[in-house]
Amino acid sequence: MSTTLIKGGMVVTASGTLDADVLVAGEKIAAVLARAVTGEAGEEAAAQAADQVIDATGKYVLPGGIDAHTHMEMPFGGTFSADTFETGTRAAAWGGTTTIIDFAVQAKGTSLLATLDKWHAKADGNCAIDYGFHMIVSDVNDASLKEMDACIEAGVNSFKMFMAYPGVFYATDGEILLAMQQASRSGATVMMHAENGIAIDQLVAQAIASGRTDPVEHGLTRPPELEGEATSRAITLAKVADCPVYIVHLSARQALEAVAAARDAGQNVFAETCPQYLWLSIDDLARPDFEGAKFVASPPLRTRDHQDSLWKGLRTNDLSVVSTDHCPFCFKDQKELGRGDFSKIPNGMPGVEHRMDLLHQGVVAGELSLTRWVEVASTTPARMFGLYPRKGVIAPGSDADIVVYDPLARQTLSAATHHMNVDYSAYEGMEITGQVVTTLARGQVVVGDGAYQGSPGRGAFLHRGLNQYLV
Ligand code: URP
Ligand code: ZN
Ligand code: ZN
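A: This is the predicted complex of the input protein with zinc ion.
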């Protein structure tokens, strides 16, 4: 079994920092050897005899990032998100993410298990890093409800539902309640896209009818109050069904207030936000010459004042995860579908490559502590989605998913240098302090020496357990 010693770095985990060397044997972490103390003689000897040594002097050594919300090859609005599982997971590895959890999308009239097969066919044999699936339930009926248990047996125990997109993914309150009751019986978690889609569609129709068709209207027709209202409603339905609920891509202060109140009351309510809501704003949606289309995603980018609330929510754990909602559409020939009618712009933005960097920028800006960075980007998603302690921590026995991160490196984000299969960067020109130097996925260097060294198919499907925050 080949061994690697990651030497001289500072190990950062959710529980603290430690000057330590990390010994990897095969696919697993074999030992964490604090430099201030002498370790077991056997481990010391093994470290000295390691086949490969990675110098991490002056660098952080982190558990690999877990992006719990991606959409590779996702059908949306007559097109597909531009990253395949191959290109998207490669870009993720460049950015220090070693696990993604992607969404299998049930089309109306199809079964959940057939959907799962379809997503396995897309992903299996193509991923550079390990991956799991959530299931989007868009057709609630007796058969789908029954199949939720079969999905859990197949390692998929989180089910996303939509209060937005009437006629496409939308589920009524009654359907949501039924799915939540079913999830509750099995210990599964319902993930909610919480925007009041019925009201939004009226605002959208009014905007189009009065000739307001630019991308900024996407934001103006999806006001934060309608995210707050839907979030409260989702929480109420979850309470009645006694089901854990995880609010995805939370963007608005009003929604965060609803989450915080429910958590204070002791309900199993969790929420994630995304880097775009922390760093970008509705001003980006208002960029001229259709440039705003690059920033069309739902929920929309908000006014800047929401950002302070989101950073605070991350510190207080009312927001416990940061995922990307990576769903890239090329500006040139995909976002273009909505020129002259913002409601036809495919919803989604690229981001899987830069989550760790954009959160580290929060550390640099004094918004997050180092340990909290690791917690929201790796450890909590591992626990939330049944992967811990295999993932999300640097400890003996865990998968050797490890990132060597240079906290002082400077980089400028740009489509010219990123690895995502999309023709623009939402962060073009943004200067970042910090950069991934090396990414190991289950013991193998996939990014190192400035080059991609992985291969499609090395990533394995993760059969996940249940949410570990539930009592
Ligand atoms: O605009 C977005 N977020 N696109 C991806 C689908 C979703 O709702 O997560
Ligand atoms: Zn969504
Ligand atoms: Zn999404």
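The longest helix spans residues 224-241. The CA atoms of residues 220 and 300 lie 9 Å apart.
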